């Protein structure tokens, strides 16, 4: 039995990362797999000792319910008030928003959300729309201030359970 930890930050909240490169595929034959820290995003490889399927995502999402305000980035029309929605899940790299506002794939959005009534809003300066269908918008964060990034990491750290049991 051993305890897997991130070599960069020491967190135990790590998960298998998708195998994308030829070296990842070749090393997986030796049961050496890529892992991704859910808190600092460090990617590293380690010997697992048994075969495992290739995961689809690099980051786990935590189920949340935070009100969010968003608008298309770069729009300077005064009549552009923005849209409202609810963040349904969150990771350090993106989120899923429930909103019936029409948003095109590839759009760049500014987001602002509050995770508690007595907290300051968290601002994501830029997020790219990766999916949009049936009132659900999937976005990937592409630019946010370091302080807001730390606050999102803290939320994920508190809400995300330990991911890999001792093997």
Molecular structure report:
The chain is mainly β and 167 residues long. The protein folds into two domains: 14-58, no CATH class; 62-157, Thrombin, subunit H. The protein contains two helices and nine strands. The protein has helices at 22-28, 146-159; strands at 14-16, 32-37, 43-47, 62-72, 83-90, 94-98, 108-113, 122-133, 136-144. A six-stranded antiparallel β-barrel has the order 4-5-6-9-8-7. A three-stranded antiparallel beta sheet has the order 1-2-3. The longest helix has 14 residues, at 146-159.
List the helices and strands and how they pair.
Blueprint: E1 14-16, H1 22-28, E2 32-37, E3 43-47, E4 62-72, E5 83-90, E6 94-98, E7 108-113, E8 122-133, E9 136-144, H2 146-159
Antiparallel strand pairs: 1-2, 2-3, 4-5, 4-7, 5-6, 6-9, 7-8, 8-9
Task: Name the features.
2 helices, mainly beta, three-stranded antiparallel β-sheet, Thrombin, subunit H, 167 residues, six-stranded antiparallel barrel
Number of strands: 9
CATH topology of the largest domain: Thrombin, subunit H
CATH architecture field of the largest domain? Beta Barrel
N-to-C SSE string, H for helix and E for strand: EHEEEEEEEEH
Classified in CATH, the superfamily of the largest domain is predicted glycosyltransferase like domains
Percent helix range: 10-25%
Percent of residues in β-strands: 35-45%
């Amino acid at each position: 039995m051993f305890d897997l930890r991130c070599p960069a930050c020491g967190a135990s909240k790590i998960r298998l990362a998708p195998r994308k490169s030829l070296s990842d595929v070749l090393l997986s034959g030796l049961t050496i797999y890529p892992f991704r820290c859910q808190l600092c995003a460090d990617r590293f490889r380690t010997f697992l000792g048994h075969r495992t399927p290739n995961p689809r995502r690099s980051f786990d999402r935590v189920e949340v319910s935070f009100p969010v305000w968003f608008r298309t980035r770069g729009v300077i029309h005064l009549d552009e008030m923005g849209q409202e929605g609810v963040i349904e899940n969150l990771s350090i790299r993106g989120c899923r928003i429930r909103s019936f506002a029409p948003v095109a794939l590839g759009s760049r959005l500014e987001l602002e959300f509050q995770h508690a009534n007595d907290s300051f809003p968290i601002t994501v300066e830029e997020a790219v729309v990766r999916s949009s269908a049936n009132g659900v918008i999937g976005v990937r964060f592409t630019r946010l201030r370091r302080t807001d990034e730390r606050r999102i990491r803290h939320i994920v750290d508190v809400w995300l359970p330990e991911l890999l049991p001792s093997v």
